[in-house]
Every structure is written in structure tokens, then in C-alpha cells.
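Regression test attached.
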Amino acid sequence: MSDMFSIETGGNAVKAPVLSTGREHKTLRAGFIPLMDASILIVAAEIGFANREGLTLDLVRDVSWANVRDRLAFRQFDIAHMLSPMPVASMLGLGSNPSPTLTPFSLGRGGNAITLSVRLYERMKAQAGLADDASALANARALAAVLADMKARGEAPPTLGMTYPFSSHNYEFRYWLAAGGIDPDRDVKLVVVPPPLTSDALAAGAIDGFCVGAPWNMIASERGTGRIVAAKQDIWPLAPEKVLGLRPDWAEANADTVSRLIVALDRAARWCDDPAHRDDLAAILSDTRYIAAPRTIIRRVLDGEFSLDARGTKRRIPDYFLFHRGAANYPRPNQALWIYSQMMRWGQVDFSEANMARATSAFRPDLYTAALGPDAMLPGPEDAAALEMFMDARRFDPVDLAAYVAGFPVRSPVAMATETDEG
Amino acid sequence: MSTSRISADLTILVIDENAIRASIIEAGLTEAGHCNVTVIHEVQGVARLIETLSPDVIIIDIENPNRDMMEHMFQLTRTISRPIAMFVDRSDTAAIEAAVDAGVSAYVVDGLKKERVKPILDMAVSRFNAFSRLQRELAEAKTALEERKVIERAKGILMKMRGLSEEQAFALLRQTAMNEKKKLADIAQSVVTAAGLLL
């Protein structure tokens, strides 16, 4: 497949020869889950950006995030496509195999959405008189009204799927539910469903909704089984998504390789972001080795062109995927802290200054900027404004996390809101 | 909880979608003297089972996408009722690498001594490997049988269409395979395909 495309950077369409600067050519085993946010890794391998840096990416598709985590920890993978909360959890010692992991590169932003079953959505419409273009918050409040009604009638609470306990999906789904006044641990039942199975599970009635990455939301809505009620951007535009995960000891022992890898990923990210490449990108991703989903759907997802339901209600989400622009690859310490705040909010971890430092240590913008030098894309002043752009109009305060968490009316009863000197 | 367990038998849960492989593991555990072994083939309802069984060791095939569901369960129990602290066995890196290579992973309950887990995992790894080898051999045997069938059919076609004896038909197939540097079965397959198109 790599012969189908030529490298076009800096006005030079000539195929780049294998590096001749005397650097040793290295092969890196890279684990990934079949999702569109693995694009940058896939493109770096397919279009030759890795090769130009003297690297071969041996992409290995896996079936679970737990496998990706363990295979990175036990050295079967050198690098991995990971959920952004995974390195944070690992540094905090959370989960069943907390092995230190860091990220020097974010694999873009966006891509998630929340989809509910058409049955549940119709009930929300009937009960709350929702408009087709209702906001994410209005949808969440309508669900709260339906849940109250279900409780009054003695119906079982709905079962909702997400992907992993330490996932953007878990925290975004909980954020959305809680913003509508729903307690995600008591009013609904949250379960884990592997992303490729979400649409089928919804169709079969095993779950009543899910929060998952692309392209699975669109697949459910096109099948007429689901209705998209919120996109990741609605919840928090700066919300982190997938990252490149590395073992700190490996990163230290292979500093030059890490640097070359970041350069290759930066070039691949720029390529993915160019709308002119969307046809090619959709063709690559739809391949059975990668996502194995219909090319036309992937193409439309790249455009952010959503069919919200089977009746043809459309919604266009600008920048649904950001692979590079908006400093999308810069691993922001504030994002790590926000993840940590949500872990506290839902009782996964306690607050302490030491934990705060551990959480921040998972995101390594210093490695990103050192590798790219003048090509590094740094966050601009809009980052400060983004701290206020949450769906419930709450401002994220990375300085006083304990107060930020305590300020949420809906949170886990075990969420610690007081500072301790532990650790 | 863990002190009372030290002298007691280990409770082991095996989760494997492949029923044959699961029973091979189960037999191995029984031979090693473990009596409290439960085997399940699907993950449906595993949460309740783990809660009632409270296993010391869970052995799971890593091709099982439901591992993430179990990770969620171990997390969730922190906030409800009785915490289930299960960790990926990290007793010895080389052993774990061999396990992941073989396609198996183990969760062990917090505080369990690694000497008690290692023989269990080693046994699971060797049986997983033996199972893969068996499957490979079976697949090879199947292919060999298929190939023989195709060659027989090709011979029959040549005998009928060109009036050859069985030996002559076979010699022709073999000569063609040698000339074209292809496998005998591939040439035989082309004869069968061509005959299907022409007749």
C-alpha cells in the first residue's frame, strides 16, 4: 500500500531515500487498537514518514487496552497507542498492572461521542420536548428526566457502555451524565464494551448507550439503532484523547530514537490534518489490517459530517478530529491534571500534592519540544480561555484541584476533597 | 483474609473462550493437585462469579477482548461493597514475557506469594503452547488431506480428457510442477479449476 502514495513535504515530491546519515535503522514494535485516532501512527508507517527518520514501525493490532498496557510493560511493544488517562493512572499506581508510562506526544484531539439507543432517545424527546439540535446539556437533562420517570415506574436503570476504567470515554460520559444531574454510579449502570462491539451491543439491546471513539458512533447512527447526543467537543474542547505511550527507562536509553519518532509523528500529524489527504487517509484506515470499517463512513467521519439518526438529521462538527492544528500534539500538563481531577471526582484516587506531581510527570512536553525545536507547535493564549469552556460552565482550576473537585454537585461519595500530606 | 488463605487451597478461575484449551488447562491444574478450579468460556456474568468465588488466581487468554471489562470491575469494586484487588502477575519478567507470547495472562489476588503462582502460570504457558502446536499440526494435516484430494481429482480429469493411465497422469502433473517451479497441489488445483471452466 505504501507505493500508492508519495511523500509531499516542503514542495519535494521525490520519494525519500532511506536515511544515509549513519544513524542505525531501527524497528519499533507499536501496539494499537483499531480506532481512527491511531491515524498518526498508521500514516507514519504507511506514507514513509517513519522511514525518513530511519525507523520502521511494526504495527501490531490488539484487542484490549489491558493487553496494550501489559505488552508495553513487559517489553513486547516498544511504543503504544494509548488512552491519555493510561499513563496518568500508571504513574499514580492505579489499575491491575501499574508500570511507569509517559507520553511525549498526543495523537490528536477529538473523535469521541455519546450515542444513546433510539428507544431511549425517543422517550427523552417525548418527555422533555427536545429539539433535533438540542445541546449536549439539554440532552443530558432530558435523560435525567427520563431516568426519574423510569425509577418512579420501577424500571431497571439503563446500562451504558464505555471502553476502559482509565479512559477519556469513562470521564467524558460521567461528566456529561453528571452535568445533567445524573449520578453515574447510582442512577445508571456503567459497563465496559470493547469499541468494535458497541454498535452490535446497542442493536442487540445489551446496552442502552455508549461513549466511544470514531467511527463507532456513526456506524450505530447510520444503522438506525443509535442517536448521537453529545460530541467530545461539547463536553470540553481541550479534552485529551489518545497519546503515544513509552516506558520511561526505554525512552531514556533510546533518546535519539524517541526524538526521531517524534519528528516522524509530527510530519504524519501534519499530513493527516490536511483536508486534501482525507481520501487517501480513509483508504488507508479502512484496510482490514487497520480499522476494517467502510471507507465511505470513515471519510465522512474525517469531515465531521454526522448523521445523527437514520432519518437524515445532520450535524457538522468542525474540527471533529484535530491531528495537528491547535497544538494538538503538545502533551499539556493541564490535561494530565484534569484527568487526575476526574479520577479523584469518581473515587479512583485521593488528593495529595505528591499525586499531583505524579500525574503531571506522565505528560512530557519537554521531550516534544526538544525533539522538534522550532517545529514544535506550542499552545497559544486560547488554552487559558479553554479552561472555561466546559458544557456545565464550570471553570477548571489546575492550581486548586481539591476545590475544583469539591465544587461538583455530583461526585463519588468517597471522593476526597481535603488535602492530605500522604505520600 | 489473606492469612487464612495461606494454608488453604488456592481458588483458581480459568476464563477461555476456547473450550478445548480451557479443559486442557483444567486437567493440568487438577494433576497439580488444585481442587478449587472453575472454568468458564464466556465472560457474561463473570463479575458476579468473581464476587462469589473470590478467586486467588484468574487465568485468561489475552485474545479475549473482555479483559478491559475485568479491569473495570476491579476498579469499580473499590467504590462499592467488597474490594477485589487483582493484579497482573509480575512475579518474574521472563516468565510473564513467555506467558504473553503464549497468549495467556494471569491475575493474582493482592498479597499472594509468587512461589505459589509461578507453577500455575508455567503450567498454563506450556499447555497454551502445546495447544497452539496441536492446532498447527491439525491445520497442516487438514491441508495435506485437501491437497491429496485435489491431486486425485486432477489425475482423474487428465485420465479422462487425455486418455492417460493413472501413472502417466501423475507423471504429467509432477513434470509440470517441476517445470513451473510450483507445488504439485497448486498445479493440480489449476487443472481442476480449468476443467471446471471448460467443461
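Expected vs. actual: identical. The first strand of chain B starts at residue 11 and ends at 15.
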